[in-house]
Amino acid sequence: MRGWLKATIALVVLSGLLVGADRIAVGVAEDEAADRMVKSGQMSQRPDVTIEGFPFLTQVISKKLDDVRISSDGLTVQNNGHQVALHSFKAKLSGVEVSDSLNSATVSDGTGSGVISYQDLAQLLPPASELLGGAPMPGGGNSRLSLSYGGPGKIKASLGPVSVGEATVHNEGDTITVDGLKLSSLAEMVAGLTNRKIQPASFTLDSMPAGLKLAEKDGATPLPEGLQLSFEGKGVKLLG
To answer: Does this model's pTM top 0.90?
Structure first.
């Protein structure tokens, strides 16, 4: 009986040591992965990385991580060098194949999301004068539309204090288009603009986080807090 008890205690102690070693190893790997994502240019800021699944060491032996989660609230995306903040970024990366030294990593399947504020979204659109075909703007040619949430699938726009209607948003690849705005009679009168149509406005995002791309379906969705971007990718090169 005493021999059985000693063996049981030894097994419990050994199991605790193995679990502790496993948790230490995963913590080191998460920190190293976060650093290397920034160095590789896949993330504009060091993210929080969580490697799911237990035990971690068996995943290391197979050189394949089943589930990696990434989050950050300080990333940026850009269009032609113009950067804006991407808030509340979260991504799930499945089937991450890594090299022995963590110098390279490829993601089998990845999804994610983040939000651009409407104020920042307006900065990615051309000035109002360009949207109105070169019409002079009251207060200067660099005036921009003010944007806000307009309900499911819609964005409200205004030119100064004057509403210019609602727009729809859609994407084709990494190019986002804001379309459907129309000057009302009141807007034409107050702004001194007549017979002017608002042209669709498009911009293309580059330097996406974690090497992902905008989702083909509903890659850009208006929400009360801003424009939500949905990301996806298969066979994505995360490191190396």
So the answer is: no
